């Protein structure tokens, strides 16, 4: 009698274990499908081609976080704006799931669409922020948006809670963006985003990146940015080009010790042999008087030419 009872309990336990195993397999299958969908969504939202302009080269690197159940929302983008200048963005959505990937798509599409309404980087981020707030999403995104004028080399930048980008020059100078930063997108209605302005000349490089490239268990953010700065200095000094620098920065991302997204966007002002001695990252006010001497301080905010005032109080170019 006792043996029959024990056998019945054993059969019930095996049946229960079988049901739990089948349930776990089904859940894993559903999650795998969600990850595959999110990765496909990420890939589909990234630009298939990068704009081209005489004297400038763009290069990108991107590795999505899709190991196991981890899906991120980093993105990069580059497109020709209605006024002929080039818009560039890079950003990072809070969270690591399919909702983050979908929110990334909303931010990227919003930036592109609103670029037809305003081309000022600060105004563009402000309008995108208000749009995201109005949607009532629980997520937010950090972002850097730049507007490049290939004809003059003027580069205007606005940041929404994003890590600073790195720059380096052909004459050996380098640094990180020090301009004021606004709040992340989708958090505070009516937020303003100050704009800084620089002028790139021959040989300079600018490195836009997400924190997955430079921060993780094996690398602090400050150390990661320092290493990227070193790579940019070598690249600009030797004139190795945007593609080589993007590959080098992505190799650094492989060593940070995490499974986050990693995205990098390189802007390189190509120089021929006769231009290599010119300073390569000059402040906007120097445009009228020529390039600064190597002894001048590191570049900072510039006063752009006067124009209609924007929402953030800055006068657009």
Contiguous low-pLDDT stretches (5 residues minimum) are: 273-317
Q: In which order are the strands of the major sheet placed?
A: 2-3-4-5-8-11
Distance between the termini: 92 Å
The fraction of residues in strands falls at: 15-25%
Secondary-structure blueprint:
Layout: H1 2-45, E1 56-63, E2 75-80, E3 86-93, H2 98-114, H3 121-135, E4 141-149, E5 154-160, E6 166-168, E7 174-176, E8 196-200, E9 205-209, H4 211-214, H5 221-238, H6 242-253, E10 262-269, E11 281-283
In a nutshell, what does this entry contain?
Helix content is 35%, strand content 21%. By secondary structure, the protein is an alpha+beta fold.
Question: How would you portray this structure in words?
Answer:
This protein is α+β, with helices and mostly antiparallel strands. It contains 6 helices and 11 strands. It has a 6-stranded antiparallel β-sheet. Strand 2 and strand 3 (86-93) form a beta hairpin. Helix 1 packs parallel to helix 2. The chain is globular. Mean pLDDT is 78; it is low at 273-317.
């Amino acid at each position: 009698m006792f043996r029959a009872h024990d056998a019945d309990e054993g059969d019930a336990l095996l049946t229960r274990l079988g049901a739990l195993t089948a349930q776990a397999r089904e859940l894993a299958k559903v999650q795998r499908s969600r990850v595959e969908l999110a990765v496909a969504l990420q890939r589909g939202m990234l630009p298939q081609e990068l704009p081209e302009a005489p004297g400038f080269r763009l290069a990108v690197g991107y590795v999505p976080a899709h190991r196991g159940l981890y899906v991120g929302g980093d993105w990069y983008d580059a497109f020709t704006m209605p006024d002929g200048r080039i818009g560039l963005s890079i950003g990072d959505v809070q969270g690591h799931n399919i909702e983050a990937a979908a929110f990334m798509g909303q931010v990227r599409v919003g930036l592109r669409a609103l670029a037809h309404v305003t081309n000022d980087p600060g105004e563009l981020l402000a309008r995108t922020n208000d749009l995201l707030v109005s949607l009532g999403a629980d997520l937010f995104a950090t972002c850097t948006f730049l507007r490049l004028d290939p004809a003059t080399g003027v580069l205007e930048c606005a940041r929404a809670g994003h890590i600073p980008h790195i720059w380096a020059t052909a004459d050996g100078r380098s640094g990180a963006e020090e301009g004021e930063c606004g709040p992340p997108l989708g958090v505070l209605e009516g937020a303003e985003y100050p704009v800084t302005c620089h002028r790139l000349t021959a040989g300079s490089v600018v490195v836009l990146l997400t924190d997955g490239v430079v921060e993780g268990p094996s690398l602090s953010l400050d150390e990661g940015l320092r290493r990227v700065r070193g790579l940019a200095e070598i690249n600009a000094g030797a004139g190795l080009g945007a593609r080589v620098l993007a590959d080098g920065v992505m190799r650094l991302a492989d060593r940070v010790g995490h499974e986050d997204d990693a995205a990098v966007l390189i802007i390189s002002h190509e120089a021929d042999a006769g231009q290599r001695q010119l300073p390569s990252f000059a402040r906007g006010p120097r445009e009228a008087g020529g390039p600064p001497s190597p002894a001048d301080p590191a570049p900072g905010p510039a006063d752009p030419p006067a124009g209609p005032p924007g929402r953030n109080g800055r006068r657009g170019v």
